[in-house]
Amino acid sequence: MNNLLRASTLLAAFMLGSATAEDSPMQVAALNTTDIQAQGSSAPPLWEALDPKNLKLRSAAVLVVDQSGHVVYAKQADEPRPIASITKLMTAMVVLDSELALDERLTVTKEDRDLIKLTGSRLTYGATLTREQLLRLALLASENRAANVLARTYPSGRAGFIEAMNRKAAELGMEQSRFTDPAGLDPGNVASARDVVKMIRAAQSYALIQEATTTRSMTVYPFKGRGPLRFGNTNRLLRRAEWEIGLSKTGYINEAGRCLAMQAAIADQPLVIVFLDSFGKLTPFGDSNRLRRWIEGGIEG
Q1: Which among 45, 133, 139, 255 would be 20 to 30 A from 93, CA to CA?
Q2: Cβ-contact 231, 217 below 8 angstroms
Q3: What is the pTM of this model?
Q4: CA-atom Rg of the chain in angstroms
């Protein structure tokens, strides 16, 4: 609950305006998703105090921008690369844009198995959950089979769903992005760090995505006569009191390395933070803390 309250407070600072009805998405901040300032553009004095030479990050691609679109730090930000399960943010937006009934119960079938990386799932064949529950599991726990169910049950099927993902990317100005599957298992899902920032900006206009990606755990009952299944959030920073996170998504496949994309506040400044292609399970979280110390130390020093 405290985490959700922090997320709500952060959102108020980051967004302008709010939903006019319960089922209407909140308005995106005044910054257009295509208005991210190029590296080298004039930055506010707050960021001019920071010396990039003092920040040593291990992720191959990094982009950090403030709520006005000013680049705080960038590293290979325009190179497209696999983004793994960060893909699921686009999957969620396509599902919500479709306005399909979130309370409709969907059943996992053999068609939903992973034929790309051959990963397993606790949602075995016959598991039945609502569309909303599957969407939350895809975001919170990065459940691949849940994402595949969502795509299969789209009105024009999986192929139509992937087409919708690419249309949405084009609408958001994600010029270096391509989507080939809804879960992020296919390394053909690519985007630059700059494009991922645009995707996070857009995802922030969906209250359900904000809530699901910042919820620490979720319990579901997908099988009649059987006990619950508990799923935990893949972003361990949500368990740290010093982090105020409004939206987040992790990702990993061999081709993409460890990835983390999130909207969070550092030194009371709302930021969008993207780390792509990190080696080591904990590296994106380590880079997050290194970034935090760099900003806090630079501003206070």
Answers
A1: 255
A2: yes
A3: 0.86
A4: 18
Phi, psi of 212 (to 5 degrees): -65, -40
The secondary structure element, H or E, covering residue 5 is helix 2-14
Helical pair 144-152 and 131-140, crossing angle rounded to 10 deg: 140
Is residue 24 annotated as a catalytic residue, yes or no?
no
Sequence-separated (6 or more) residues with CB below 8 Å from residue 301: 49
Distance CA 65, CA 85 (A): 21
**Residue 8, Ramachandran bin (φ over 0: left; ψ between -120 and 50: alpha; else beta):** alpha
Q: 243, 76 in Cβ contact below 8 A?
A: no
* pLDDT greater than 50 at residue 24: no
| Catalytic site residue from 142, 177, 192, 278 | 142
Rounded CA-CA distance 92/25 in Å is 13
H or E stretch covering 215: none
Quick check: 10 pLDDT over 80? Answer: no
- Of the candidates 75, 88, 168, 249, the residue annotated as catalytic is 88
What's the structural domain count of the chain?
1
Q: pLDDT tens digit string along 29-55?
A: 333 444 565 444 555 778 988 999 999
142 as an active site residue: the answer is yes
Q: Which two three-digit tokens encode residue 19?
A: 């939903």
- Active-site hit among 59, 75, 85, 205: 85
Sole residue written with tokens 């396509």:
94
Residue 85 falls in the annotated catalytic set: yes
Range of the domain at 61: 2-300
